[in-house]
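User: My collaborator sent over this chain with a note saying "see what the structure looks like." That's all I know about it. Can you take a look?
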Amino acid sequence: MSFELTPDARDWQARVRDFVDRELIPWEVEAEMNSGAIPAEASDRHRAIAQDMGLPAMDVPRELGGLGLSNVTQVAIYEQLGRVTNALGWCFSEAHRWMFEACTEDQIDRYVRPIMRGERHECYAITEAESGSDVAGIAATAWRDGDGGDYLLDGEKWYVTSANFADFAVFQAKIADGPHAGDHALFLVDLDSPGIETVASPLFSHTYAHHHPTLRFTRVRVPAANRIGEEGDGMAFSYDWFRYERLMIAARCCGAAARLIDEATSFAEQRMVSGEPIAGFQAIQFMLADSVTELWAARLMTYECAAAHDRGDDVKLLHARCAMAKLYASEMANRV
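Assistant: Without extra context I'll predict from the sequence alone. Here is the result:
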């Protein structure tokens, strides 16, 4: 069994691969040697190219000003972006379809469309010390401040990826009082709001310019106009984002594994031992064969999961399949 891409998906695959090969990969060593950073003129160029291609709006429906690409086509794009190291493929912020379904017109104008234009950059403040994938276990709270409509947010969020490049966060909290006490809600929070502090920025085993800091929110005042949806809608919107992000992580892992196999094969063909390339040794061939086989399996799983989204399969099945695709593809890439 193989997965046949549409002509449109193949075209995007080729365009993004060319962008990765010509513009991003040449900066890998520079990034690795400088804590993930590359010269501003280079990163500005990468953002401009991604913007011109329309990548920040690939998931946005055409009638709303986006590219309206299928999930299969988006997986083909993210697989190619996964071929570059040091998070150099993270050269654009992205507006998602769920935002247009969840946000008000005012929120779309203030936050979502500026993402599409490359003017604003988001991060997600969801994970906490005692709750990772179990989002239901978060302790962060949102209190109503009298009858004025404002909320006061409290909580400590871990691994807020790209917070150092973001100007606002999507913050998840439990409603602390009123008829919806204990229910979840999402809020759009400007990161220059009083009461937000960075308490740690832990080092990771990668070399990214994008950091994953711990942010503490202490009585951060947010207007009700910045609540996404109704009180109690937070989990549903988070699941929408989780499905998309997990699927695209699986795609990037497939791209990473493909790049690793290419690099390993090239090395094995050039590395000489006892007068012959090690590519001719059976032990090396075993490892390459296992790697290619696992990549094939992960690709089939990932693209079928994307196609299931495009078919409109049951959302509960989609949620489980996205989790499985991310699990298998990430562990596959590590084995490769």
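A starting point for your reply to your collaborator: The chain has nine helices and ten strands.
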